[in-house]
Every structure is written in C-alpha cells, then in structure tokens.
Amino acid sequence: MDSDDSEFYGSPEERRQLQSRVDGFDARAWARQHSVWGFGSPCRRPSASAKSAELHNPYAGISCARQLAETLDDFLSRLPPATTDASEDTPWIFICNPYVSRKKRHDDGGEFMKGNEFEAPTEDESHVGLVVEGGMKRLELLTEFRQKLELSGRSAALVKRELVQEQSQAVADILRLAQAGKVRSGKWMLFCPPSDVNEVWGRVARATAHNELGIAAKVSPRPQFDHVRKDRIICIYTSDFQDKSDVGRVLRQLRNLKLVGPGRPIIYYKPDIFTYIGLSHGNPWGLAASIYNSKTFES
Question: Domains of the chain: which residue ranges?
Fold first, then answer.
C-alpha cells in the first residue's frame, strides 16, 4: 500500500494490524517455520534409458486406475469414460506415467482438501496439508484487505489499483509456498463432448503411458445424472508448474496429437495448489484460476 493512501484503512490500530499482517506475510519464512522448505526440482521427464528401469504406479490397487499388469487396450476397455459411471469408488479415471516415481496415491491433505483431493500423485517429501493451510491463510488476509478497501470510501480507481496489487502478491505468495513445500504439480485441462471423450482420452492415456506427456492424467467419468451436452474434462499433469519448458513441451505434444491447435478452443494450465485451496473460476477473491493458457506458448 502507498503510504499516502494508508489513512483510509480505519483506526490507526486497525491500520497497523492489517498493514503488518499483509506486508508481513513472508511465504519463505512461513515455509521455514513449518518445516516444509523444499530444495531441488522434481525430475520433469526421465531419459530414454529410464525405460529399462523399474516401472512405477502410484495408483497400484486403485480400481479406477490403470494397473501395470494390464495392457493399455484392456485398461481403456475396462474403464471407457463415455459409459463408466462416476461413483465414490470412481471419482475419476486415472493413468500414470510408469517411468516417473511418485508417492503412492493417498489423501494427505486432511480436512483442507475435501472434494479436491484427487490431483496428481505427489512427489517425495511434499507437504500438501501444510501448504494448503498456508495458502488458505493467505486468502484470508486477502479477504480482510478487500473488505477494508471496499469500505474505505476512496475512488473506484484507487480501490481497483490497490486490490489488483494485493491480488497479484497473494498469488505470488501462494505459488511460492507451493514451491517451498514441494506441491509443484499442475495440469493442462482439456474439455471435450461425451461423444468424443473415449477417443480423446485414448490418445492422452497412450501418450502418458509411453512417456510422451507428463507424470499422469485423469478423465471425468459419466456423471450420475448424465448430461449429454456437458463436456468432460481431461487433465494432463506436469511435475512443476514453474518449469515452463516442460509445461510447453507437454503442450506441443498435445498439439502433435491434434488435441490443441487451430480451430480448437484455448486450453488453460492450473497449478494443483489452486485446486487444493478451492481457487476455481469465479472465486470470491477475484483471482484467475490458471497461470498459463495455450496462447502463452505461441511463438
């Protein structure tokens, strides 16, 4: 906040407390305090020699995911998304890249992630629950800031300027926390009509299993109340949302598969931390629900 404009944030004590909380939120310090600081980068894609190494499946034993013992054809026949009904046991249909080692799939986010826990398998030493808690605390600060701002009586232009700055800082803090706590995965999101979902999913699943896309993928099954016209979503995961070279590589492969490109809608990339904290389209904080789109990588 500009010092000349700070006078409109209530009493001096209220101003001091709010200014201190907002300006004092240090993502790096929070991560260190909660012992979630991570170093290094996840392996974005194994080399060709990795294909001779041990195969991995974080979805082992999960009925709605591909098992390494079954062929791709058997998997796609067993769980065709067009006709596989969504249920408690089948919230999504999953496939992993068997050449990338990740944690076995489990819910390690607790109460913070109810309804949003089915994202990419996490990397070793990730701290999903703590990062989600920190991200939600940062959103609470943004909410307080916005409420004070809207009651300030200042001009709409000043209010908008201050809010945009704080929104940008909140996103940066949340992404910094995610990097620190090794919650770095994210996904490209494809939407397709039910009539095309088996074909599109087949291309994505095969490319994922053959180490040509990202670390994993999932597709939404048929909803309980089948909406014939409602598009299905397919998520293609990468290991690190900050690794734009790898995010762009996966996008280029989707173009090669004729799933993105001329005549097709723009697609968006969303960090998993945004999903974990409930940051979706039309959210109450006024934040964008994605950090890239397919036009971002156009040359």
Answer: 58-99+184-298, 128-182
Query: Distance between CA atoms of 247 and 232, rounded to whole angstroms?
Result: 22
**What is the fold, at CATH topology level, of the domain defined by 58-99+184-298?**
RNA Cap, Translation Initiation Factor Eif4e (3.30.760)
The model's pLDDT over 12-67, given as tens digits with 9 standing for 90+, comes to 555 455 555 556 666 556 555 554 444 344 444 444 444 446 898 999 999 999 99
Each residue's pLDDT tens digit, 228-264: 668 999 999 999 999 999 999 999 999 999 999 998 9
pTM of the model: 0.81
